[in-house]
Each structure stands twice: as structure tokens, then as C-alpha cells.
Amino acid sequence: MKLTIAAAGHSHIASLRDGRRRPDGAELEFVDPGPQVAAYRAMIREVAFDVCELAAATYMIARQRGAPFRALPIFLTRRFHPSNLMVRPDAGIATAKDLEGKRIGVRAYSITTAVWTRAFLQNALGVDLSRITWVVDDEEHVQGMALPPNIEHAAPGESLVSLMAEGRIDAAFGSAAGLGRTGKPGRGWESGADEDAYINLFPNALDLGANWYQQTGIYPFHGVIVVKDELLDANPWLAASLMNSFEAAKHDWLPDLRTRALTTKDDREYASLVPIVGPDPLPYGYRANRASIEAMMSSTVQQGLLPSGLSTTDYFSESGPCEETQSR
To answer: β-pairing, 27-30 with 199-200?
Structure first.
């Protein structure tokens, strides 16, 4: 069975990409839609792939609205928050509480980076999110969703880059979540502001995130693997097969972290997380990630993106590598 898959070029899935590893009973055909954010949008709106790496918050919102795919607890990207929250030098923002009453730019309100950052600001630092105006310059991946009243859309032709430069917003997310790009997701879109002109509000983000993790067990995840419902329903062995193949590919990569044979910025960042989270900085499986999954769900509810009363097991399979055995 051949499956199309859209996933970013992570080192920890390299042996799946080059065919050294493959799921039992299936062949993965990797496709390149451009930046992974473009794949998110194609999967949400067109169900364009059989398997896709999808932003976690976007997936949960889409699933609640009937999206015909389900997540396996394979978390391909992780990092601590807050990070890359850039402020203008003249904005009068020195602490997290100073964000109240200010205008903060973010590509779209529901992106996973923003959900995790707002969760940290609210739950760890006591920031009243309702007192912040969130300015967005792109559309939400999930169309037609209701947003809180303190969201403002940039006018056509305006971007967070220009708004920040002109002082019409006080702060903004960096990189692809905000200032690092202009326009809609597409090839070559990452051409944004010179972020060196601004101040990172949390230069000690790693320490803050590590403390939050040690206190709560929350280790924020971003990209998660989703699979079409029809494939999982027709092939009950497929979830375990995919889980085990991704786990095997990751174990091909883990020795690089131990030997410091690091070739990418992401790999170096994962190596820096090992002293905090342990020798595997990308744990898969439901049970190993339950605290983080529950935190993501509660955060989306707090922020008005999901209704209350939902169960995490409606969104994430409880099975993981070696957590249960399935046969085909």
C-alpha cells in the first residue's frame, strides 16, 4: 500500500525518507508542498495527503469540526516557550505583565506556537490575555472558526513587518509565527523583518520553559502525524506500523545527539534539551505525553478555540510503540 506523506525534512525521519526504514505493509511517498505550513493548509482544507505532519492546535480545532483524519502520538517537533516574542525598544515592555494593554502581532491567532506561548503567559506568569489585542495578518488554517473579540485583522496589503516597523503594534512573534515572513504560506515566503532591530522579551526562554516542565511535566509539542480516517479504519494494523517505523527512524538519529554529530540548527536545539528532558528529546506515545496533550487541550479551551468537555482520547490514539500489539 502506497501512502503519500507531507512532512518537513527532519533529521530524525531521514531513514524513512531515504527508504532505510519503512512501515510494515506500506510504502511512504514523500511529497514537497513547499513550507510545511502550506501542507497544514492543504491537509485541513483539501485532505491532500494520506499522512501529514500537522500543527497540533490546528489539528485539534479541525478534528472538532469534523476533519476526516486522526492523530497518532508521533510528535515531530518540540520546544519550550516563550521564545521569539520580540518587542519594540520604545514599547515600554520590560516584563510579561507589561504586555497587558498592548498590541501584539501573530500570523494567525490559532497557530500552535501562539497557543503554547499564551498558555505560558497566562498560567505561569499571570498575564491577563483578554487585555491584549492580538493583531493577525494571515487567515486561520481552519476557515470559518469563531475568534475571541480582542482579535484585529491587519488591513489588506499590510503585514506584521510593516506594522511593527511603524510602531502600530508593540510586539510580535518572530520567525514564521510572525515577523519572519510576509504574505500567505508558499515557496519563498520567509522574507520578513530584521528581527535584530527588536528585543527578545524572553532571552532566557530555555530556562523558563525548563522550569515549567519540571513543575508541570508539560513539554510543548508542535508537529503531529495525522492519518486519514478511512485508511486507519480499513487497516487496523496501520497505526502501530507507522508508530513503530517513526520510532525506529528516530533511534537511527539519536546517536547523533550523543556523539554531537549535529548538522542542523534543530538538532543542536534538541541536544540542548537532553539534559532537561532526558536522552530522547522527542518521546512518542500517548502515555509518555499525556500531561502535554492535556495541557494543549485545556489551553485551546481557555483561549476560546475549543469547547469544554472534550476528551484527549478523542483526538489522540492511546497506543504507542510497544504500548499495544496489533496484527494484520
So the answer is: unpaired
